Amino acid sequence: MHDLKRLAAGLLLATLVLAGCNRDADGEAAAKDAAAAKPASADGEAIPGLPTEKDRVSYMVGMALARQFEPIRDELDVDVVVKALKTSLEGGELLMTEEQAQQVGAAFEQKVRDAQVEKMQADARANAIAGQAFLAENAGKPDVQVTESGLQYQVLEPGTGPRPSRDDTVRVNYTGKLLDGTVFDGNAGQGGPVDFPLGQVVPGWQEGISLMPVGSKYRFWIPPELAYGEMGTPGGPIPPNATLVFEVELVGIE
Predict the structure, then answer these.
(1) Rounded to 10 degrees, what is the CA torsion of 81, 85, 88, 93?
(2) How far, in Å, CA of 180 to CA of 5, rounded?
């Protein structure tokens, strides 16, 4: 639903821009036009092709609208968008009533929502197949161990300290990646280890870290059913049915 929020924000921006423009009375508009016709001040930044303030503000608004409408760019005819803007700003006769506009907007929002759901389902199927194939091959490696739940792990550095329980808070250094190597989480650059209550993390973390002695470093391969499942993190970095890879160093038990 992230794209719908961006679309709504874009429509709100367009509404605010139009409302602001329509508030200008004749005298105020004339004064603003005269001010906008002045070139950039000597201490201002000159922008080639945009000599006046009005030019620069207009271009800025166009850039802002373009960013907001990027998710639906293939659904828009820019010439028609400009036509509607000009007609509205000039007080001309619109081709669509407000009621019709609301109906079109509601139908389009439903279309976008359906497309997002369809894409999420397709991505979930593809990710599940890719993850299952990877885990099946990875399980056959001599240094990879597989638990009854399906969690896979590898001991990178052994430790000699105590093991945490699932009720403990642990102090760790960690990096989380997708199977393609994309880093989606970690504490690098945070100035040191971070604390996690094991009862509040995904099941794969709960199980995996409870296997680790303090001072050890493990690599985990967590199947989606032990991570974020079919939903992933909507609007976030983890796709649906993603198999996750974590490298975790257990620094201590708090």
Answers:
(1) -40
(2) 28
Contact 190, 230 (CB under 8 A): no
In this structure, are residues 223 and 134 in contact, taking their beta carbons and an 8 Å threshold? no
Question: Contact 248/172 with Cβ under 8 angstroms?
Answer: yes
Q: How far apart are the first and last CA of the chain?
A: 38
- Residue 191 corresponds to which tokens in the numbers above? 């100035």
pLDDT tens per residue, the chain (254 residues)? Answer: 444 444 444 544 444 444 443 444 344 444 444 444 444 433 356 899 999 999 999 999 999 999 999 989 999 999 999 999 999 999 999 999 999 999 999 999 999 999 988 999 999 999 999 999 999 999 999 999 999 999 999 999 999 999 999 899 999 999 999 999 999 999 998 889 999 999 999 999 999 999 999 999 999 999 999 999 999 998 889 999 999 999 999 999 98
Q: What contacts 24+ positions apart, CB below 8 Å, involve 85-93? A: 85/18, 88/18, 89/18, 89/21, 89/22
Q: How far apart are CA 230 and CA 205, in angstroms?
A: 18
Half-sphere exposure of residue 91, counting CA atoms within 13 Å on the CB side?
A: 3
Note the residue count of the chain.
254
Here the tokens at position 13 are: 């921006």
Taking the C-alpha atoms of residue 208 and residue 206, their distance in angstroms, rounded to an integer, is: 6
Residue 172 contacts residue 188 (beta carbons within 8 Å): no
> What is the distance between the alpha carbons of residues 107 and 159, in angstroms, rounded to a whole number?
59
Q: Which amino acid is at 224?
A: P
* Contact call for residues 215 and 248 (beta carbons, < 8 A): no
